[in-house]
Amino acid sequence: MLTTRIYRFLVIVSSVLIGGLGQQLRLVNIVFRHGDRAPLTADGETFPTSPYLTSNFPPYGPSQLTNKGRKRAYELGIHIRNQYDQFLGDFYYPPHIIARSSNTDRTKMSLQLVMAGIFPPVNDQKWNPKLNWQPVVVNYETSPDPLLNPFNCTKYKEELEMVENSLDVQEEKLRYKDLLKNLTEWTGKSFTTGQDYENLYSYLTALYSMELPLPNWTRGIFPEGGVKELALLNLRIKSYTQRLKTLNGGMILRNFTGNMQNAIDETEPNAKMVLLSGHDENIAGLLITLGVFESDHPQYSSAIFMELLGIPAERTRIIIPGCNELCPFKKFVQLYSQLIPSEEDMKCIIGKSLNENHNELSRRKRLRNI
Q: What Gene Ontology molecular function terms does this protein carry (predicted)?
């Protein structure tokens, strides 16, 4: 069962039922976008005519979380605490929580803030009476990161290039021919790929969030209008075919279903919640893979919740395509089996099979213990 609630940020919750265990919450998977940030000054996001071309956006720095973004991420944590208070318990116990971020400052900081909102220190965990905060365990992957940054896979790149050059996508881009011509003139930058569209939207969104004056040419096309439509087109292009869905949102889907299977098999009996701190393309990619993307760009701190067995009350229910209101876990996995990456797909992204990767991690662990 998929349910939605608007809570200052988009929250989408899916509950997957497993038979014979009663309606008891077993595990919560959450992937969320980082909070509001300052614009990037690299990676192709800025443009030559920008009035902020040489700005480092003090006091934050390029691409770093702003105070608004810090507050929004912290509020997401508070919402999670309020939603799952009894399930999580009062104390922070590391084996209960798996917290992982992509390898960017803004996602790492967002994850720390979300965790601070979920787990303020109580009783014996209060180590400083003047500070309502405690350290927590968070992790991130450097390159390659198949879960939150799967876009460097050769197969993905080849498929994406084919889609970008396909007749269908070229026809969709043709609808924006005049706008793209004007954008090139206004920004001094050419727009040839979907990522170029996304970069412009992200840059303007960051400026807008910081309440900085925008160029006059943005009126009527941003925040609603043509620029947003182009950014949404890029998100759809990134998951345009089944292959792209599998290698994009399918990575998170594989992680979530694996986590739920582990909970069912009790191979990780202590885990209660998995938190992934990522980007708008992760949110959109998973929604498109699930077939429930509603053509709205994921806002800062947007989140997808996927529960094993929990049945939230008083929410709008969205039924997973091909499933009933309560979706049995085995049927859920079967429905999306073609969109969950295979061992060969994983080898493309991380450069080795999961078994090889597991053996390497085990070897490193043994070396650390010597």
A: acid phosphatase activity
